From TrEMBL:
<protein>
    <submittedName>
        <fullName>Neutral zinc metallopeptidase</fullName>
    </submittedName>
</protein>
<feature type="transmembrane region" description="Helical">
    <location>
        <begin position="6"/>
        <end position="24"/>
    </location>
</feature>
<feature type="transmembrane region" description="Helical">
    <location>
        <begin position="133"/>
        <end position="163"/>
    </location>
</feature>
<dbReference type="InterPro" id="IPR007395">
    <property type="entry name" value="Zn_peptidase_2"/>
</dbReference>
<dbReference type="Pfam" id="PF04298">
    <property type="entry name" value="Zn_peptidase_2"/>
</dbReference>
<keyword id="KW-1133">Transmembrane helix</keyword>
<keyword id="KW-0812">Transmembrane</keyword>
<feature type="transmembrane region" description="Helical">
    <location>
        <begin position="196"/>
        <end position="220"/>
    </location>
</feature>
<keyword id="KW-0472">Membrane</keyword>
Length: 229
């Protein structure tokens, strides 16, 4: 059965600690550069629109949504959603985050393969996140085969996290290039962009390590349970 023993610390604690550190890092960077206005004095939404138009992405709509750091791009409806602060504010952080989301729109336009692959496994990843635990729990009592199905389903959730890394890193790279090409921020301000986007990338690394740790722990527990039968 599931317990918090030595395996828990081996597989899960490193990823959890990194995820916590990354969350603190992005919060700190966002607070710092979210309070420093850009010299060009344009909002995140304006910066996003300019980069989109320069990339011939006139059909991409920009919408304001609620929440904090909830910014995202949806390839299915070509909508770039920006949180209120990012949409309205003229800070270095707002421009950086908006440009990062435009990076995803550019990936969509050029048919970036890691993005397409991630889209293709979303249904299985959602199943893995929502149902794998139930298969594993039921399998512990009734059938090892059900347990294996649960582990296999969870693998797709882990795979989704792994594939997310190159997608996010590439979007950040495109964001920095777009900001520099458009002349939105000078060299000193670009240091803030790099800090914000690097901190954001670290959150994905933490989430991926945590997911991998969970998967390895499930493998160890289920294989251990099979040997004890």
């Amino acid at each position: 059965m599931y317990y918090y023993g030595f395996e828990y610390f081996i597989y899960l604690v490193p990823g959890i600690l990194l995820a916590l550190y990354a969350q603190a890092k992005i919060s700190s960077a966002y607070e710092k550069y979210g309070s420093i206005n850009s010299k060009i004095n344009i909002s995140g939404a304006q910066a996003a629109r300019k980069i989109l138009d320069a990339s011939d992405l006139y059909d991409v709509e920009i919408k304001m949504i609620g929440g904090r750091l909830t910014d995202n791009y949806n390839p299915s409806n070509k909508v770039l959603s920006l949180s209120k602060d990012v949409y309205e504010n003229t800070s270095i952080a707002s421009i950086s985050i908006a440009a990062h989301e435009v990076g995803h729109a550019i990936q969509d336009k050029i048919d970036y393969k890691p993005l397409r692959f991630r889209e293709s496994i979303v249904p299985m990843a959602n199943l893995g996140s929502n149902l794998s635990v139930w298969f594993i729990i039921i399998g512990c009592f009734f059938s090892y085969f059900l347990t294996q199905i649960g582990v296999a389903l969870f693998f797709f959730a882990v795979l989704f996290q792994i594939v997310t890394l190159p997608v996010e890193f590439d979007a950040s790279r495109r964001a920095k290039l777009a900001i520099e090409d458009a002349g939105f921020l000078d060299q000193e301000e670009m240091k803030g962009t790099k800090e914000v986007l690097s901190a954001a990338a670290l959150t994905y690394v933490g989430a991926t390590l945590t997911a991998i740790g969970q998967f390895l722990r499930l493998l160890a527990l289920t294989n251990g349970g099979r040997r004890r039968r």
